[in-house]
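Q: Given only this backbone (462 positions), what sequence would you predict?
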């Protein structure tokens, strides 16, 4: 009977897609399936021969989940048709994540903070439809605007600095702009951006695009709206929401730590920053301090980095970027909330206060749950990949965290991983892209009251 009950529960979950979290899984699963089928077509490759299913599936998942890990070189293996399929999957994945996560945030905010107001609004549904439409239009408008600006800048540089034809320069500019804003990390060069490591006209626009996309639509929307409505002398950052303030501060601090750590550790490394001049070292170090947030581009050989640098990247990739953005990871807000919880516990305070607001207990539990489950996924994935490949811990851990954080950086072992290991990475990419969003939403919307409480007892901690 227990088995029958569990089977009915599973089939019920699969056959009732109206729950928001289920819609996300079904939507991204459908996009992955369509992308895989298209990439399996002979027309999708330069050689006009069919790609093996695992490679096609891996590439489709990597594109939809805006990761950037690849087992074959994007430019030499895939034809123009195949590259356009990948580009379309990246755009769908990026827009889908930002739109759905923003809408989920809207839904959670209503459910958690405006219950009585919702009762009145449910009758007409005008506010809900209006806000939803504004979110969708805002996400699309912001995405296309940023991508267009970056594409123009890159196109101009490819034409004037590298002698590319107009058509080729436009294609390169558009492809890398979309890939950068969506934090995908796909590049049309076998060595990613190593050939442009010292060119600020390429590196800076891509860096700006990945930061804007990684902060998340709610943050960008609130900041730009406040800048439009207020004069500079009347500007007050305290008027921003708690989410925006936490995201901006945490993102800036982690970015600063990443830039300083990477630049310091690699300053004398003869295989990375060592041969460069001071200005170019700062440019490359700054780019690689931002890229693990989860862009996936690299301008030096990641496999030649010191172990300390790889460990710093592991942490940055696991944390990721802002919520409702194109970045992956557990998100900087989750990381910051845990820090606030720890500080309150060290001080012996009964409640957690953040920037003039009290942090609700359910939010604290949700943050802890997301972090622990994310850490568990990384540990299990690392153990499986170590057993499958027999490679070193540094390289395997980096690859696993990169997949879970949907980063796309690699020490160069992706193409050497057997099919069983690639399946592990596929699962990690899918979990890393959809897991934190669906889990956080499900936890926030799940509200079960207790009719009684058990006697309290405190076990020994530590």
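A: Predicted residues:
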């Amino acid at each position: 009977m227990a088995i029958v009950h569990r089977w009915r529960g599973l089939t019920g979950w699969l056959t009732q897609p109206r729950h928001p979290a289920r819609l996300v899984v079904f939507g991204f699963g459908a996009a992955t399936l369509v992308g895989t089928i298209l990439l399996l077509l002979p027309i999708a490759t330069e050689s006009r021969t069919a790609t093996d299913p695992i490679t096609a599936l891996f590439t489709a998942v990597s594109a939809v989940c805006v990761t950037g890990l690849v087992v074959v070189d994007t430019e030499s293996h895939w034809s123009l048709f195949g590259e356009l399929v990948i580009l379309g999957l990246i755009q769908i994945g990026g827009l889908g994540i930002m739109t759905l996560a923003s809408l989920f945030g809207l839904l959670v905010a209503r459910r958690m903070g405006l219950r009585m107001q919702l009762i009145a609004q449910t009758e007409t549904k005008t506010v809900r439809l209006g806000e939803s439409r504004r979110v969708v239009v805002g996400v699309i408008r912001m995405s296309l605007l940023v991508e267009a600006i970056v594409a123009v800048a890159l196109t101009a540089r490819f034409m004037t600095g590298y002698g590319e034809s107009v058509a080729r320069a436009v294609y390169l500019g558009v492809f890398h702009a979309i890939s950068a804003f969506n934090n995908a990390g796909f590049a049309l060069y076998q060595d990613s951006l190593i050939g442009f490591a010292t060119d600020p006209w390429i590196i800076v626009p891509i860096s700006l695009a990945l930061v804007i996309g990684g902060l998340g639509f709610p943050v960008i929307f609130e900041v730009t709206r406040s800048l439009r409505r207020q004069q500079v002398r009347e500007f007050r950052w305290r008027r921003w929401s708690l989410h925006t303030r936490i995201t901006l501060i945490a993102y800036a601090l982690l970015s600063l730590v990443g830039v300083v750590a990477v630049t310091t550790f690699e300053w004398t490394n003869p295989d990375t920053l060592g041969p460069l001049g001071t200005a170019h070292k700062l440019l490359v170090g700054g780019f690689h301090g931002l890229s693990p947030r989860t862009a996936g581009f690299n301008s030096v050989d990641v496999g030649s980095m010191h172990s300390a640098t790889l460990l710093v990247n592991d942490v940055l990739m696991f944390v990721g970027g802002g919520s409702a953005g194109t970045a992956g990871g557990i998100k900087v807000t989750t990381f910051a909330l845990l820090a606030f919880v720890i500080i309150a516990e060290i001080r012996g305070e009964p409640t957690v206060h953040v920037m003039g607001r009290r942090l609700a207990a359910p939010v604290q539990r949700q943050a802890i749950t997301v972090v622990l489950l994310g850490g568990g996924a990384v540990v299990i994935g690392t153990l499986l990949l170590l057993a499958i490949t027999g490679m070193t811990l540094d390289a395997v851990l980096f690859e696993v965290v990169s997949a879970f954080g949907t980063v796309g950086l690699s020490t160069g072992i992706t193409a050497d991983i057997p099919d069983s290991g690639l399946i592990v990475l596929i699962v990690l990419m899918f979990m890393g892209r959809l897991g934190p969003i669906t889990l956080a939403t499900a936890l926030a919307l799940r509200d079960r009251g207790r009719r009684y409480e058990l006697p309290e007892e405190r076990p020994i901690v530590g």
